Amino acid sequence: MASLIAPYATEKPDEIALADDFGETTWSEFNSRVNQLVHALRSKGLTTGDAFAVISGNRREYLEAFTAASHGGWLLVPINWHLVAEEVAYVLSDSGSKVLLVDSRFIELAEATMLQAGRPTLDAIVILGSDVFADETEQAIPYEDFLSSQSSTEPESQLLGGPMFYTSGTTGNPKGVKSGLSQTGAPVEVLKMIGEGLSGMLQMTPGGISLLVGPIYHSAQWAFSFLPMLAGSSIVMRHKFDGEETLHLIDQYKITNIHLVPTQFTRMLRLDEDIKRGFDGSSLNVVWHGAAPCPPEIKRQMIQWWGPVVNEYYGSTEGSIVTTVSSEDWLNRPGTLGKPVAIMEVIVIKEDGSRAAAGESGTLYVKNLMGSDFEYHNAPEKTSDAHLEPGVFTFGDIGYLDEDGYLFMSDRKIDMIISGGVNIYPAEIEAALIGHPAVLDAAVFGVPNDDFGEEVKAAVELAEGVKPGEQLTEDLIAHCRQHLAGFKVPRSVDYEESLPRHPTGKLLKRLLRDKYWQGTGRNI
Fold first, then answer.
1. pTM value?
2. Residue 305 CA to chain centroid, in angstroms?
3. Which domain holds residue 82?
4. Is there a single domain that holds both residue 444 and residue 301?
5. What distance in Å separates the CA atoms of residue 1 and residue 24, rounded to the nearest whole number?
6. Hey, how many other C-beta atoms are within 10 angstroms of the C-beta on 123?
7. What are the pLDDT digits (tens) for 386-408?
8. Is 438 helix (H, G, I), strand (E, B) or coil?
9. What's the structural domain count of the chain?
10. Does residue 183 fall inside a structural domain?
């Protein structure tokens, strides 16, 4: 048996391990299919340290691939299916992937990728959910045929593998992140200890049921579903998030834990009152959110609705989970990201390079006290730029620690607006805008101003049924003026049908901002 899931295949063989839009898989079936996939990938020549890639939505086969990589000693490269063919080809080439698994929903993307220059020669392309592939120059194999050609017996010489996530690449090409979870060749049991340790630290009941409604190609969604699975939790997943369906799934499957992002909170809060009243939610033990700043009023409303199960974390693909905060602590210190977890230290460095005192703002650096570090694959200069010294690194965020050691984040350096020499951080302005009942989502960024360098611009997505207009713009600006200092108030408002958010919740402001800077000869 695949050793990480062997206990559950033995103890509860007929219970559901995985459920998606298409069906369900028991623990016994899951174990057999993982064994077959390990054998199948080995038959294509993959050896310890090799990489293979997946382009897929959330589906059961994705978890089979992650689990197979964990037993085969391989790197699994999850590829964002929102990328274009040129970007996919870059990731495949940069990672050195030898096999590509493709969800049938993204066959056209895979076909276009195969026509790009610079992609690696793949030993196999395997199609999940279909056997249709137009490019006859590649040997495409239906996933079920790929598995059924192999034995379900336990593979020999199982060694640890893991994911190598690529960052979103808001500047330059995406960067592959090699962290402690990306090691290959170590004993498989190492990952089981990590999974059980994380589940305990995050208050996830062993043997519970996780709901996955964000893309598992993102490190947080993977960590909050796959790692609890190693402690015996089942996973219910959907390809796309729907607020009403999420409430239904929580009650239907008696979900015990879920990871969400603030935009998902907002969409559920804006559902009809009858739908919200029909939600029970008593099975939930813990709800985690992160990946993007959460407007304080939105968080208060979620805690009021769902109770003190709402918890927040601060972290990244590079550094894992750094701080956590409970509902109670957050209500006592609104806006805090909590205290560092036991194995992490947060260091605040001021502009002059000195270490900040309590309450002083600066660049946030993180140190893993267990000695774990990360590197960007094939990018030593980017690895160096992110480090203050070996083992001490930054995600590019700005914030401070209060007298009691609670972390507060101001913003990301890349988002900071400098107007008339004053630093303005968009996060608090966005929170104020989202507090207005007409606004569903908001983005704030700097646009050119001849006198002050930059001025504050807001772009908003309106709630259903709300119409844009001059009066609404005046109302939104007046609303901000009630909650913010005058220099922070947006000077103008754009109305967008939807804001460009990455499915992980990250706001892609450059898509809104760049058009204002074209032809100015400057970026700030």
1. 0.83
2. 24
3. 6-164
4. no
5. 20
6. 17
7. 999 999 999 888 899 999 999 99
8. coil
9. 3
10. no
